Amino acid sequence: MSKGVNGVRRLRLCLMAAGALGFAAVFTLAVLGLQPFGGDVHPYGDRAVRASLLRGTPNTVSSVNFDQRALDTLGEELILVASALAVVVLLRMVRREEEDEPGRHRYGPADVFEALRVTGYALLPVTVLVGVYVVAHGQLSPGGGFQGGVVLGTAVHVLYLTGDYRALDRIRPVPLFEGGEAVAAAAFVVLALAFAGLIIPMNAVVGVEVGCAFILVLAKFFEQALLVRETG
Amino acid sequence: MAWAAYLTAGWIVLAGFYGIVTSRNLVHVVVCLSVAQSATYLLLLSVGYRWGATAPVFSDIRPGRPVVDPVVQAMTLTDVVVGATVTALLLALTVQVSKRRGTVDPDALRTLEE
Amino acid sequence: MGEALLAGAFALAALLATAVVLTRDPVRQAIVLSGYGLSLGVLFVTLQAPDVAMAQLAVGTVMVPLMVILAVAAIRRHQREEPP
User: Fold this and answer.
1) Which of C58, C66, C69 is opposite residue A150, by nearest beta carbon?
2) C23 CA to chain A: closest CA distance, Å?
3) Domain count of chain B?
4) In CATH, what number is assigned to the domain containing residue B89?
5) Where are the transmembrane segments (chain B) (predicted)?
């Protein structure tokens, strides 16, 4: 049996080596057909910059995402919503386990230094503020809905570093974020289809959506990982 | 030498694929896949780079100054964020596999049904 | 100067990507992955892409490694509860 498995592994590695050599050859040929790194010919980029400045958006990346290619971003958004939804559905089992046997679970231990705890609490408002700032200034400076959304989605988990999972659980009621995610996704569909180019509201909506999606996904993983049976 | 940046992306893709093929743990497979995916960020941003140009944000520079390509940056940006949720989906599937089958070794998962 | 910086950032990213793949234990891999995410963030800044670097730093150094560690913890919990 183990000999058979080893044979299969060797065969798989040989197959991979052949494929990798082929890929390397074709990829190198393709790359040699590109302009050299750092070249001066960027027809799409030049046009995008011109269009963005015509519409008065200093951050051209935001302009491309939410104005010139809003329909494309809509597709990306739907992938994000679908993935987050699938994670929530896939990791839902533990909810039933939890409801079946209330009181038999406890959350992980929380032995952390007092200084770390205080720093965590103090940093939470700062990180959330930074996230909101990044979303709100997406039109003018580097930043926007996607970047601010991921900052907001991860910032909340500073509380976990303080070792206080219950506090984290209290400040992010999952149903609220599920609702926020759905509403923001719907709002983005409307904005992208009918009002593409309204960069500030689109940034805000995407920020809410990405932040909610990240918080939801991490909440589900936390539930799966931290529910420890007391009688184990 | 001028193509070394693109070839770095090719190297990272192949490294990720090698990890996937030789892996003994589905979590390791998912991480290697995310490494292979990260090569697309490198490739896209390298294609859009321009020597001596600055970031494509005009709040503090005058229009007309050469900037790098914002189109590929916008693509990479959505790619990074959406890629993270897709990685989350794959990890959730891995957790489910371990729950149902009691193992995360791909070689022990020969059939779909047991 | 800029050229050397770019070459260094590319080399670091390639090196750390290889290190992530060759680290077999998922928990250690999550830590190396976090370092790789950081190196990608630095590379994106040197490639003049601050927007992408911002997202990459939050996603690559916090979000994905945290999810990997939580998934490993969940898998260990299930396997402890129901030995195969």
Assistant:
1) C58
2) 18
3) 1
4) 1.10.287.3510
5) 6-22, 29-51, 71-93
